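Pasting as-is:
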Amino acid sequence: MNTNIETFKYDNRIVRAFAIATVVWGIVGMSVGLLAAVQLFFPNANLNFQFITFGRIRPLHTNAVIFAFVGNGMFMGIYYSLQRLCKARMFSDFLSWFNFWGWQLIIVSAALTLPLGYTTSKEYAELEWPIDIAITIVWVAFAVNLFGTIIKRREKHMYVAIWFYIATVIAIAVLHIVNSMEMPWGWLKSYSMYAGVQDALVQWWYGHNAVAFFLTTPYLGLMYYFLPKAANRPFFSYRLSIIHFWALVFIYIWAGPHHLLYSALPDWAQSLGMVFSLMLIAPSWGGMLNGLLTLRGAWDKVRQDPVLKFMVAAITAYGMATLEGPLMSIKTVNSLSHYTDWTIAHVHAGALGWNGFLTFSVLYYLYPRLYNTKLWSTKLANYHFWIGMLGILFYIIPIYVAGVTEGLMWKQFNKDGFLQYPNFLETILQVVPMFRLRAIGGTLYLIGVFMMAYNLYKTAKSGAFEPDTEAQAAPMEKTPLAHGKPGWHRMLEGKPMFFTVLALVSVLVGGIVEMIPMFLIKENVPTIASVKPYSPLELLGRDIYIREGCLGCHSQMIRPFRSETERYGEYSKAGEFVYDHPFLWGSERKGLDLAREGGRYPDAWHYNHMDDPRTTSPGSIMPRYSWLLMQKLETDSLPARLNAMRKLGVPYPAGFENGPAQKDLAAQAAKIVANLKLGSVTADADKEIIAVIAYLQRLGTDIKAAPAVTAAK
């Protein structure tokens, strides 16, 4: 036995920095979310200011709460726990601070670019290519720091929390790189390298697993560390944790296609996503039970300790969300829930309960220890718990009601066989009161965060910060973990690089099996001869549509249901989207599906609708886009856009961008201006609204659409 005891220090400065950032960005991200929620029943809340419309701040909200609030919370917990689990200071103080400041600069970049309309439109991956490169660099720095610390550890046994940290690092790296393959056409703009169905598969392989490996696995690691520490008892079952980990990292990666059920994605891929989603219930609930059973016999302490209160509620929310998610992936359930607010309620039940409450519990645990004092007010923390819980209930219950109402109303037929509610706006007006209740819930939740921030500030003021915590431990020995032959997993935990390779293989298998056939077997994306590339004016209009975040409220995917084909027209085919870089199928409907929008209304209707939706659709919750009528259409970058598209395989003729494209654009714009005059509208041909109208009038016209019920927006 090695008796050479070494003295070293844990770095608390980096933990404090991430803790402060977590609180600050939590307030910012949730405030933006509240503003977005208010606009859903009071669209004029944007003050007709284009940079804070719902379409632009929705991705800002999601990025802020996921990558700024939860991301900083994740780093906070990992930097604190990893040092103590490895009995070693972080591998590099420089890399720690590079990680911190690099991450904050990325967040600030997102906060500036998204409201300005610089977005890829891909959900949870909206940031443009220069920021994607920065994310990669910072993530590599974090990975080097994490693995360097693991390698120099003084504890041979890798505790379960570290397994989840390793899975997070490798999975997020793979997901981010694959999904962020883009063709730049400007310093802050690009087109996705994938198109249509293939782009949709890659995006939701990423999108679902961003939830899995950014919002779930690192927080499970924090649960496995902080819950036993706060309860002062070992976690329930080591064997269950092994099953939980390996089953989760292997199964999760397959589940992405459940976001695309009844879409143009091939049936085999949809079925794989559904089957593996249902399988996820077992490991997810294994983790939940492992957490809750750790507290057996300690419920008196839970009633008194706000840290444990938040943890129990968080783990319960995790269990409920990971049961509901697989159930929503069953096709019959998904046919009702998809595109409705049911999905929004599901996401927020997990985000507010699991990620929010667990982050709060870790903050309440850490601050007294970082400042060598007691929590300033346990009573205030308990008030925070109850007001936060009330906020969650006021948020999710009305939105569940709204989601089910929407799904049922969309599908309802009358006794004569016609749609009971052919006007889509009838559905929206029915659920507007639920949107108001949601805003109340969001306000309560945000008030709780302000209460926590004040409590943590007073805690810090009442104590003295300890920059470095001194610790002692013997160097890691090269001998077995225990007398006799250790178990296979114990041996594996002593070989972190081999462990990492196995975890990487587990993560990669599902993605490889799903993606390779989609890219190599042509029959998965059959072509349609009548589908042509967008004209130059339509391409510019599509880019404006993306800039304004229109896909946040409008889908472009008609599912093969009678209720949808009656309302919108012929269901969508995979071959329609072969030139769509990126795909724009959307994930929610606050307005009509636009897949067959072309020719449904005259150009003047679209002009007036964009200027003020209430003039064409009384009661509409869509914001005004009056700036489109005044802003000049930017055409200087058209050659770069067309050239980028050609490189991606879109068959624009050679040299088309060098002259013919501008003539084509001018001719089409002149036709639209003439059409507007027929509708008593006078407009200039060089305004953005002309391009938007061109794009909307193109949608669905490559394929002859079946007659559809005309419905107001």
